[in-house]
Amino acid sequence: NDEVCTETTTLKFSYDENNRLVSYEGNEEYYDEDDEENSIFVQNYTWEGNTISTDFKSEDHHSHSLYKLENGLIKSMSESVDVNGATESSEIAELTYNSDNRIIEFNIDNKPEARYTWENNKITSYVEEDGIPYSISYNDKTCNGYFPLFAMADWLELDLTNLVYTNPELFGLKLNALPSKIETNTDKYKEIIEFDSYTFDSDGYVKSFTVKDSEENITVTLKWE
């Protein structure tokens, strides 16, 4: 029999009076037939002028990040990870934007991580560092507010910060188009990721949706206030 396992991640975000993210608390619960795990992590954000600094703590490591902004957009990010009081790793990310202030390139330590193509204010394709191209299609629906990139950011190589979810305007990513599919089909690699089953609250904000690929089925549930 196939082993059944479930994983639930809950993220709670807090904001200041300007709707800027100031902290989040995460809780990950994992369960299968042989094991059960639970972990809690907290990250705080401090906004000062054209910088945002963060402090992240979990059970096994402590990290710091610094974001530098220009004209309301994040242009660079640096991160250091401390393990047992010593800096174990660090990296610097740089972001490039088009004339519409939409992110088009993301580099880490001067190496391309991903490049994005925009059409009609939607990301229609991107290429990862290994050269694999992906195309993105959308359904004919839109939402109020914006589409939060939960469960989509991992595949866009944009899962580097929760600011992508809560303050997407910092990356030129505030859009209300709803994706339906991300796919790639090359000689070496084929993958299809489907977004489906959108539901909306009474104000037209996305309340839930599902993400499916060949290995897992994810349900994302959102609460707006």
DSSP E strands, number: 15
Give the C-alpha Rg.
18 Å
- SSE pattern: EEEEEEEEEEEHEEEE
Molecular shape = globular
What percent strand?
over 45%
Low-pLDDT residue spans? none
- Looking across the biggest beta sheet, what order are the strands in? 1-2-3-4-5-6-7-8-9-10-11-12-13-14-15
For the record, give the distance between the C-alpha atoms at the N and C termini, rounded to a whole number. 43 Å
Helix content: under 10%
Q: Overall pLDDT, averaged?
A: 86
Number of helices: 1
Q: How would you classify the helix and strand content by structural class? A: mainly beta
Main sheet properties: 15 strands, antiparallel
Provide a descriptive summary of the structure in words.
With 225 residues, this protein is mainly β. Helix content is 2%, strand content 61%. The chain is built from one helix and 15 strands, in the order βββββββββββαββββ. A 15-stranded antiparallel beta sheet has the order 1-2-3-4-5-6-7-8-9-10-11-12-13-14-15, with no helix packed on it. Strand 12 (177-185) and strand 13 (190-200) form a beta hairpin. The radius of gyration is 18 Å and the shape is globular. The protein starts with 5 loop residues before the first strand and ends with a strand. The model has no long low-confidence stretch (mean pLDDT 86).
